[in-house]
């Protein structure tokens, strides 16, 4: 039920289709009680997302006074590794081993890199897409898992593997630092989720890859190649 609701919310956000239109065929598979519960899950999630957008907008308009790296020392190793997926992603984009830095410098450099990209592309119309490195694969795996059991950090780590392979780059650093393991999800469901990705153009998947002169975005990749790499991420 939660997975069905999450999939409808995702499609509503990525396709901008009315939620009730997506909800109707799904609700028809349930009895009246469960159909009402499904509707509440979907509409309730959308309501909370709108509130969250408002809060994030307010927070983003205020300068950050401080980021305390000491907080990282309180995290269990598994949770720290979740965050390291984004650190490794940023280091790959920057072309520097940011994961080797002390925590205070690591946080500062990662935040500065992302802020600079967003300031150069405030409307998310070009370069800002590089921040999605590995995320197209990650989102497909999360959706296929029904947003249960596959954490975002683990999915991103796997997505980075796929992006590096398609870029003909060495995957050793990702494997050593993040140690990602294939996940158990339905292969066809993952592929269908990937084809719904918001960055697809005319039904053709577009990915962020690494080139000799830095990251490239909006790269058209043959579907067979994309699916091959997606399959390698699934146990």
Helix content estimate = 55-70%
State the order of secondary-structure elements, H for helix, E for strand. Answer: HHHHHHHHHEEH
This entry's quaternary arrangement is single chain
The biggest sheet, with number of strands, parallel, antiparallel or mixed sense and barrel status, is: 2 strands, antiparallel
Q: How many distinct helices?
A: 10
Number of domains: 2
- Uncertain segments are none
Straight-line distance between termini: 24 Å
**Rg from Cα:** 19 Å
CATH architecture of the largest domain: Up-down Bundle
Instruction: Note the beta-strand portion.
Output: 5-15%
CATH superfamily of the largest domain: Dehydroquinate synthase-like - alpha domain
CATH topology of the largest domain, by name, is Dehydroquinate synthase-like, alpha domain
- The CATH class label of the largest domain is Mainly Alpha
Mean pLDDT across all residues, rounded? 86
């Amino acid at each position: 039920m939660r997975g069905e609701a999450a999939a409808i919310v995702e499609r509503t956000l990525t396709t901008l289709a009315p939620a009730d239109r997506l909800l109707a065929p799904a609700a028809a598979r349930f009895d009246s009680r469960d159909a009402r519960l499904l509707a509440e899950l979907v509409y309730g999630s959308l309501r909370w997302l709108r509130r969250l957008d408002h809060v994030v907008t307010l927070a983003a308009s205020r300068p950050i006074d401080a980021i305390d790296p000491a907080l990282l020392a309180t995290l269990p190793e598994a949770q720290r590794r979740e965050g390291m997926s984004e650190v490794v992603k940023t280091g790959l984009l920057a072309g520097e081993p940011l994961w080797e830095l002390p925590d205070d410098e690591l946080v500062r450099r990662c935040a500065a890199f992302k802020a600079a990209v967003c300031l150069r592309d405030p409307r998310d119309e070009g370069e800002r897409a590089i921040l999605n490195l590995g995320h197209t694969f990650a989102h497909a795996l999360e959706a296929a898992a029904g947003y249960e059991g596959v954490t975002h950090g683990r999915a991103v780590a796997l997505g980075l593997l796929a992006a590096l392979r398609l870029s003909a780059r060495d995957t050793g650093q990702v494997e050593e630092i993040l140690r990602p393991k294939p996940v158990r999800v339905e292969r066809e469901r993952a592929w269908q989720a990937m084809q719904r990705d918001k960055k697809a153009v005319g039904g053709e998947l577009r990915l962020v890859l690494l080139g000799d002169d830095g990251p490239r975005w909006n790269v058209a990749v043959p579907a067979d190649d994309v699916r091959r790499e997606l399959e390698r991420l699934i146990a």
